[in-house]
From TrEMBL, chain B:
Assembly and binders: Homodimer. Forms a membrane-associated complex with FtsX.
Functional description taken from the UniProt entry: Part of the ABC transporter FtsEX involved in cellular division. Has ATPase activity.
Name of the gene this protein is made from: ftsE
Protein name in UniProt: Cell division ATP-binding protein FtsE
Membrane association type: Peripheral membrane protein
Record's keyword annotation contains Membrane: yes
Superkingdom classification of source: Bacteria
């Protein structure tokens, strides 16, 4: 037992340059994978956040907006009843022109745009929350151009750009992670072959005196697994630093504040880190095993 | 202890068999010289006994193992009961004498306290107790071969195989090695030694099995190397 560990670490020390290259490549690959996983998490969070807020807005035309503080006119009430009866819809709220103006004043308190806007330029709206936020377009199609309706806007389509941006960040990191993983696999495989070559006399003697396959091969597997684990730890460390010094600043900065929810440390340590450790160890073991099977006849 | 039954071995790269229908039996505790000129099949026979290769035809028995048919996961057990030394010693250059001997026990999972007691004993047996901490590069050829013998013998094998163990040594040193092999043989270990050293064979008067072009040419119980050569 002691023997195989000693041999494994001797192997890692012997080809130190290769070992370092192997660990770094593995760490980068796993780090990218971790970043991709965090992106997926963040996208889910962001979507949850937005889907609870966004709605389909049915803006009413000028005459209806001007005349109706409580949606009692036949046109408005008719639209509202029809929306409420629709199975895609989970709720309808009426916001009169005056209420819209009040909200507008709240949002832009102290800003010059307030001077330009008067109640008359804002429509009254029916805010429709969807049972299924993905099917807002169907409401848009049904109600656009109807009497009393100025226009219908699915807010979801306006946040779609944000999601597709996050989505491409995710895809790019996963893509890079795969390329790096390939490099890591080849390096691990190559290092094991090199290690087996340097140890061939030793392994030859081991076989001759009756050492089992386990004793001759496990040191190589341990070398690989240690690489995978150290790589996972470095990758997690890198992600923690990246979060503290880059992401936290970016997401709390003026541009993206309140647009994307911050990445939590617990996400990183409790969800991403374990995945990286397992993936690192499993991939390194499989690579090591395959290399021994294919290239190292001992 | 060892039995070959009509063993034929043809290497895939050659047409002529390296061993051709060889049958021979060696009793427990015997000392046997395996002689014949270069290329006559001596090393091949030893390789078959160690299961480094398998015969094309016939059976090879060592103790109760049918060596040629042994599942590869059982091969380590066979080899743990056999010791082997070669002309070129095959010591690990980065380990001391004691470490080289201990290595053979470590890699088959012997506990450390066993190793600590057994290694000095066997170094004593081969008269190298004083050189336990030397590196192989600091040893003479005869000393290196004695370390190799210590390593082969440390696990008390049933059979010790020696493939031209004196091939690289001068006659005087060779005599020392032969004395050592005889001492090991007297502990009850069966010894099979391949050699083409006429002087050694003639002086020992032990059983001689001669191979010629892969065929069994002679089997004398107290033989000499031969007259015709
Ligand atoms: N690995 C091998 N591949 C092909 N031919 C071999 C191999 N080993 C030995 N031979 C051939 O088998 C014959 C017997 O060789 P060997 O057993 O080494 O003889 P010896 O040990 O008596 O010199 C020789 O003709 C040799 O060329
Ligand atoms: Mg030979």
């Amino acid at each position: 037992m002691l023997f195989v560990w000693r041999e494994a670490f001797a192997g890692l020390r012997r080809n130190l340059t290769m070992s370092i290259a192997m660990v770094i490549t593995t760490a980068i690959s796993l780090g990218l994978l971790g970043a991709g996983l965090l992106a997926v998490r963040t996208i889910d969070r962001t979507e949850d956040l937005y889907y609870s807020l966004i709605a389909v807005q049915v803006a009413l035309d000028e005459p209806t907006s001007a005349a109706d503080p409580d949606c009692s006119s036949p046109v408005c009430a008719g639209l509202r009843d029809e929306l409420e009866a629709n199975p895609l819809v989970s709720g309808v709220e009426y916001e009169s022109r005056d209420a819209a103006f009040e909200r507008f004043q709240r949002i832009y308190a102290g800003q010059s745009i307030l001077q330009l806007v008067r109640p008359q330029s804002l429509p009254a709206t029916l805010r429709v929350t969807m049972a299924d936020p993905l099917r807002g377009t169907e409401i848009v199609e049904q109600f656009t151009g109807r009497p009393g309706v100025r226009n219908v806007v699915d807010q979801r389509s306006t946040v779609q750009d944000l999601f597709s941006f996050l989505g491409s960040v995710r895809n790019a990191t996963f893509g890079l992670a795969v390329v790096q993983a390939l490099a890591a696999l080849l390096l691990i495989s190559n290092t094991i072959q090199l290690s087996a070559f340097t140890r061939r006399t030793e392994v030859g003697i081991m076989r001759l005196v009756g050492a089992t396959r386990w004793y001759t091969q496990v040191p190589f597997l341990i070398e690989a697994v240690v690489t995978g684990l150290v790589g996972a730890v470095l990758a997690t460390g890198g992600l923690v630093l990246g979060k503290i010094f880059f992401l936290d600043r970016l997401l709390s900065g003026r541009l993206l504040a309140n647009t994307i929810p911050p990445v939590g440390m617990s996400d990183l340590l409790l969800y991403v880190a374990p995945v990286l450790v397992v993936v690192g160890a499993v991939i390194a073991t499989l690579t090591g095993y395959a290399t021994l099977r294919l290239y190292v006849r001992t | 202890m060892i039995r070959l039954e009509n063993v034929t071995k043809v290497y895939p790269t050659s047409t002529r068999p390296a061993l051709d229908d060889v049958s021979v039996e060696v009793e427990r505790g015997e000392f046997v010289f395996l002689i014949g000129p270069s290329g006559s099949g001596k090393s091949t026979l030893l390789r078959l006994l160690l299961r480094e290769d398998v015969p094309n035809e016939g059976n090879v028995w060592v103790a109760n193992w049918n060596v040629g048919r042994l599942a590869s996961r059982r091969v380590p057990r066979l080899r743990q009961r056999m010791g082997v030394v070669f002309q070129d010693f095959r010591l690990l250059p980065n380990k001391t004498v004691a470490e080289n001997v201990a290595f053979a026990l470590e890699v088959i999972g012997k506990p450390r306290h066993t190793i600590r007691t057994v290694v000095p004993e066997v170094l004593d047996l081969v008269n190298l107790a004083g050189k336990a901490d030397r590196m192989p590069s600091e040893l003479s050829g005869g000393e290196a071969q004695r370390v190799a013998i210590a390593r082969a013998f440390v696990n008390r094998p049933l059979v010790l195989l020696a493939d031209e163990p004196t091939g690289n040594l001068d006659p005087e040193t060779s005599t020392g090695i032969m004395t050592l092999l005889e001492r090991i043989n007297r502990t009850g270990t069966t010894v099979v030694m391949a050699t083409h050293d006429r002087q050694i064979v003639d002086s020992m008067r032990r059983r001689v099995v001669e191979l010629s072009s892969g065929k069994l040419a002679r089997d004398d119980s107290r033989g000499v190397y031969g007259t015709g050569r």
